[in-house]
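Give me the fold.
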Amino acid sequence: MIKINSIDKNNENEKKSIGKKELILVFVMSLLSNFLGSWYGYSVANDKIITQAILGLVIPVANMFYANYFIEAKTLKNRMKLTVVAGMALSCGSTLMLLMQKYINL
């Protein structure tokens, strides 16, 4: 009897929807990691060696904070929510990096 109850509780936890806080975290961290990744590509193309080294160390750490949500999403609905939020963040991150290069010219 105890095993059945624990299985039912686990199934209820898997069906939970992802909350707004988690979606905001995924958006912000996706935006940051894409911005840094785009900046890394720009620094490689323009021989900015110090920037390359620093960004190469920072990017995996930025990805670590939100990758777990993609791994733990059990339902297709939750995975689609994460994908849409991350896609919006990726397009914003690339655009912000291009605007930074245009106006700040680092």
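The CA atoms of residues 3 and 65 lie 33 Å apart.
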